[in-house]
Amino acid sequence: MAETAALVLDVGGTKLACGVLDAGGRVLAAGRLETPTSDVASAEGLWRTVLSLLDRFDEAREGRELVGVGVGCGGPMRWPAGEVSPLNIPAWRDFPLRRRLQERYPDVPVRLHNDAVCVAVGEHWRGAGRGADNVLGMVISTGVGGGLVMGGRLIDGASGNAGHVGHVVVDPDGPPCACGGRGCLEAIASGPKLAAWAVAHGWRSADGATAIELAADAARDHPVARAAMERAGRALGIAIASATHLLDLEVVAVGGGLSQAGPLIFEPLEDALREHAKLDFAREVRVVPAALGQEAGLTGAGALVLAGGRYWNAD
Amino acid sequence: MAETAALVLDVGGTKLACGVLDAGGRVLAAGRLETPTSDVASAEGLWRTVLSLLDRFDEAREGRELVGVGVGCGGPMRWPAGEVSPLNIPAWRDFPLRRRLQERYPDVPVRLHNDAVCVAVGEHWRGAGRGADNVLGMVISTGVGGGLVMGGRLIDGASGNAGHVGHVVVDPDGPPCACGGRGCLEAIASGPKLAAWAVAHGWRSADGATAIELAADAARDHPVARAAMERAGRALGIAIASATHLLDLEVVAVGGGLSQAGPLIFEPLEDALREHAKLDFAREVRVVPAALGQEAGLTGAGALVLAGGRYWNAD
Predict the structure, then answer these.
(1) Measuring CA to CA, how many Å separate A282 from each of A126, B113, B165, B167, B182?
(2) pLDDT value of position A132
(3) Between B41 and B125, where is the model more confident?
(4) Tens digit of pLDDT for each residue in A178-226?
(5) What per-residue confidence (pLDDT) applies to B156?
(6) Taking 80 as the threshold, does the pLDDT of residue B41 lie above it?
(7) What b-and-e string marks burial along B255-278, b requiring 16 or more CB atoms within 10 Å of the CB?
(8) Are residues B153 and B246 in the same domain?
(9) What whole-number distance in Å separates Cα of residue A83 and Cα of residue A79?
């Protein structure tokens, strides 16, 4: 049997990533570039950038038979139609990304899902959730996203939006959320919200008040920075307790920038989780750092076509 | 083709229900009796009571071919082994209910699940969730339980415990919960907790301080009774908002005694849900009263064997 490969793409607000996976999900080649800034990029200009990236990596197949194209993209989107309106890419509003790619690659399946869903799928297929059947994958970054694998299969929900763990309510009287609600996990634990809380409580930033800087200050025992990490970690633990009770999860894989902060975030997370997840079955849940780093999204995008029986339930 | 039927059983802390369903899930015959009180019932005594009930309804098949036995039972339990330890039936601890029934009916599948899961399955198969693929079924009674159907299939979780919506955290600093946690939905919105809150806030009961009595007083505009219903309804709305964001649900079917209170509970529920469920996809969720009433549990138990392709994922 000839060797096969999938072409994979991950479209985010800051980075465009592209790569080639072998049939087993190994990344044979990958690269990324800055997403062209919104005020100069037109819908078609961005599409041409994507095409040139795909062309470059399509060559990296080195003769392996192309079996499909898998794509992760920032939401919201119409799914499974794949008409995308990524929050941080104003140039694309209802852009028919899946159809355009299908026209470009007419002989193979082209499948597209939310980028956080792809991260969760990647972690289940080849990362920290491997071997478990019931997994929540989370990405804590400028937002808090996620995806769900239950009974070994990706859960899509009514419109492909299952996995929005960032909008689990962790404090009904908590701060307003960008979604219009209040007290969502994302309103407390996303990088920008976390840093903003620290600034409001007296933390002075030397360099843009990012969550990365905040984590570094917390590691140096800055009291407000530590309190901010504690607050975010506890919010994560409460949301994970709720999700675990509702879903009887085995593994929660936590990725994204903030997860790099290690014990500063995972210790308060575990404390709050264990205070709230008291039912016998819920005590069994394991919260682990994501394992695939930047490759999770591409790996999961590949799984949509390379392991579609488990990870693709649409047409 | 000969007509077929399933024998169904629902084992609860207060009632034992039994019945016969035709292949389409219609209840051909059903009856219930009080669960023998815990302090006089032995494990084997209760088993004999169950057997006599089954024998009686097995006759009601009237010659239809028996295709399976479906059982709902109060948790906790080892699932799918079906070794049950219902919270309110102390006589049964690790009682091998599924195995005993399989020995009694060796020629057909015997399948058992959590009673609240069976209610959710019943409502999805033949009730308020019919036609939707992503449904949370809830039972608000002495506890708050539930079950989940996603992508048209029952979700079990790692150990058959998916659906424990009663332990979604709605107020992290809220009242202690029987599970050992704090601020769970059940600690606020279950019938007994709701009534206890009203008593603590000055409501005087004439008749045992039940949630039914409380609902009646709320309907008569008693201010504390109304405040209690409002508080429970809001807690339900917050939990449903979290579940909807996490799961991209289409329908939430709410049953159990408290759901009988109608607008007194559904209005504050809707208000809180709409305040918190703001993402576009989440606005689409519909919260509806359960449709099958007392027959939901038996109908869902029947679905485990009559529609096992969708509702039974175990051995």
Answers:
(1) 24, 18, 12, 10, 14
(2) 98
(3) B125
(4) 999 999 999 999 999 999 999 999 999 888 889 999 999 999 999 999 9
(5) 98
(6) no
(7) bbbbbebeebbbebbbebbebbbb
(8) yes
(9) 7
Same domain? For A272 and A141 the reply is: yes
Does a structural domain hold residue B246? yes
Map residue A34 onto helix, strand or coil: strand
3-state DSSP helix/strand/coil percent for chain B, to nearest 5?
A: 40, 25, 35
Same domain, B169 and B261: yes
- Surface-to-core class of residue B309, CB atoms within 10 Å of its CB (0-12 exposed, 13-18 middle, 19+ buried): exposed
* Cis peptide bond N-terminal to A172, omega within 30: no
Q: Which residues contact B108 (CB under 8 A, 6 or more apart)?
A: B66, B67, B68, B69, B305
Contacts of residue A243 in chain B, CB cutoff 8 Å? Answer: 246
Q: What is the pTM of this model?
A: 0.97
Q: For residue B295, what pLDDT band results from cuts at 50, 70 and 90?
A: very high
Does a structural domain hold residue A42? yes
Per-residue pLDDT tens over the stretch B149-201 = 999 999 999 999 999 999 999 999 999 999 999 999 999 999 999 999 999 99
Search chain B and give the residue with CA nearest A161: B248
Helices (H) and strands (E) in chain B, counts: 11, 13
Residue ranges of B 168-207 with Cβ closer than 8 A to chain A: 168-172, 177, 179-184
Q: Which residue of A has its CA nearest to B136?
A: A246
**How far is it, in rounded angstroms, from Cα B296 to Cα B120?**
8
Predicted pLDDT at A41: 75
**B177 contacts B186 by C-beta, under 8 angstroms:** yes
Least confident of A111-120, B207-216, B262-271: B207-216
**A243 found inside a domain:** yes
**Rounded to an integer, what distance in angstroms lies between the CA atom of residue B53 and that of residue B280?**
49
| A113 and A139 together in one domain | no
pLDDT at A39 over 70: no
What is the per-residue pLDDT across A126-140, written as a single tens digit (0 to 9) for each? 999 999 999 999 999
| Interchain CB distance below 8 Å, B276 and A169 | yes
> pLDDT value at position B36?
85
User: For residue B168, what are its two tokens?
Assistant: 């979604």
Chain A and chain B share a number of CB contacts under 8 A equal to 174
CATH number at residue B162: 3.30.420.40
Residue A98 and residue A150 share a domain? no
**Close Cβ partners of B144 (under 8 Å, ≥ 6 residues apart):** B138, B165, B166, B185, B186, B189, B190, B256
Q: What residues pair up with B275 in beta bridges, in sequence order?
A: none
The two most distant CA atoms of chain A are separated, in Å, by 63
pLDDT in tens, B70-102: 999 999 999 999 999 998 899 999 999 999 999
**Containing domain of residue A203, as a range?**
132-290
Closest CA to A258 of A272, A268, A244: A268
Query: Is residue A110 within 8 angstroms of chain B, CB to CB?
Result: no
If one counts the domains in chain A, the total is 2
Residues 6 or more apart whose Cβ sits within 8 Å of residue A287 = A240, A251, A252, A254, A266, A269, A270, A273
